[in-house]
Design a protein that fits this description.
This protein has about 350 residues and is α/β, with parallel strands linked by helices. The protein is built from twelve helices and 13 strands. It has two domains: about 210 residues, inorganic pyrophosphatase (n-terminal core), CATH 3.90.1640.10; about 120 residues, Diaminopimelate Epimerase, Chain A, domain 1 (Roll), CATH 3.10.310.30. The structure holds guanosine-5'-monophosphate and manganese (II) ion (MN). Guanosine-5'-monophosphate binds next to strand 11 and strand 12.
Length: about 350
């Protein structure tokens, strides 16, 4: 699908469902990133205006709004499925329309997935990941070629309502996802429509450089020290295979007082080495290991993520392996065909 082209009948149906909705829930994926938060809030703020005063619109994130995006307009309204479990269930019971954003399957909402799947109400998906779970949604707007879900919301909202509900707050939210999912317009931005969407949003008096500042320059001292440690002590390089891995135990994370949010973007450092074509980051969690995969142009890591039970995009994918760190490392090495290769392990201290 060309980024701005939508099936007219699908758009009309979506408009009607939104207009008829009395209790609308919007849900994005666990460990929300800028695109998940931005598309969730951008659409929420537009729906507030598009629906009647008696309609309740609630944005939900499975494990709440991450601290680094709490500055987004409307972020204070986000319901955490994890901490507000009862309220989530009450709202889901009442919901006549659920809109899922920036995820391709209910499973990406972790502990909310079962309840979300079981609820028999109208369900719309707006997303840009590969392989949408077509049997879980009634109406799907999905385009893996598009830069971000936020871009999809820009064009879909234009088809739904023209520019009627676009304003500075909405544009700030949507620009945030465009920025983060393209690494500041560095990748996943091959289509002109990505820049056209950005240009459209900038016309609403947003501050792109300040938004970028809030996204990028957010490190605590601990996080900066952890990055130093990660690069000098926790990198495994497979030069012949052009692969670099970073592996972090719970103990490493405890030592620096860092967690998953602090590692957002760290995996990209692996690809800053000229020769490296694939980078991976493994992070131990309680009872499971989170895997992030990245690649340079021409290499598909989505396929590798699928073999590990995950998915994502061609050049940025991930998986959650229900295995300890060492077993996951072996599985990742096997999936990458480097299980018989001895890596160079970087250690600055001699
Ligand atoms: P990240 O490495 O930044 O966590 O995720 C990169 C991409 O992979 C994102 O688009 C994300 O949606 C996808 N992804 C990350 N973790 C998982 C996972 O556990 N399962 C699936 N299916 N996709 C994931
Ligand atoms: Mn996204």
């Amino acid at each position: 699908m060309y980024a701005k082209a939508f099936d007219i009948q699908k758009v009309a149906m979506c408009r009607q469902w939104m207009a008829e909705g009395q209790n609308i829930l919007l849900v994005a994926h666990t460990n929300a990133d800028g695109d998940a938060c931005g598309s969730l809030l951008g659409l929420t703020l537009m729906l507030d205006q598009a629906t009647g005063a008696d309609c309740h619109v609630t944005p939900v994130l499975p494990n709440g709004c991450p601290k680094n995006f709490s500055w987004l307009p409307g972020a204070g309204r986000i319901l955490s499925g994890e901490t507000d479990r009862d309220l989530w269930r009450t709202l889901l019971d009442k919901a006549d329309l659920v809109i899922c954003l920036d995820l391709n399957a209910a499973s990406r909402t972790d502990m909310l997935a079962g309840e979300l799947r079981d609820r028999r109400c109208r369900k719309v998906l707006i997303d840009h990941h590969h392989n949408p779970a077509t049997d879980e949604f009634d109406l799907i707007f999905s385009d893996p070629q598009i830069s971000s879900t936020c871009e999809l919301v820009v064009w879909l909202s234009e088809k739904l309502w023209g520019d009627r509900y676009m304003n500075r707050d909405v544009a700030t939210c949507l620009y945030t996802g465009l920025n983060t999912d393209t690494g500041g317009f560095a990748f996943s931005c091959e289509q002109p429509s990505c820049f056209e969407a950005a240009a459209k949003l900038v016309r609403y008096d947003i501050q792109p450089s300040e938004i970028n500042n809030r996204i990028v320059n957010t490190f605590s001292v601990n996080r900066m020290m952890f990055y130093g440690f990660a690069l000098s002590e926790r990198m495994r390089i497979y030069p012949d295979q052009k692969v670099a891995l970073m592996v972090f135990s719970l103990e490493d994370q405890k030592r620096f007082g860092v967690g998953g949010e602090d590692m957002e973007g760290l995996v990209n450092y692996t690809l800053m080495m000229k020769e490296m074509m694939i980078g991976a980051l493994l992070r131990e969690e309680k009872g499971r290991t989170k895997v992030s995969l990245r690649s340079k142009r021409g290499i598909d890591v989505n396929r590798i993520a699928i073999t590990l039970g995950g998915g994502g995009h061609t050049q940025a994918a991930g998986a959650t392996c229900m295995m300890p760190l060492d077993e996951t490392l072996r599985a990742v090495e096997k999936a990458l065909g480097i299980d018989h290769v001895k890596p160079i392990e970087l250690h600055c201290k001699q």
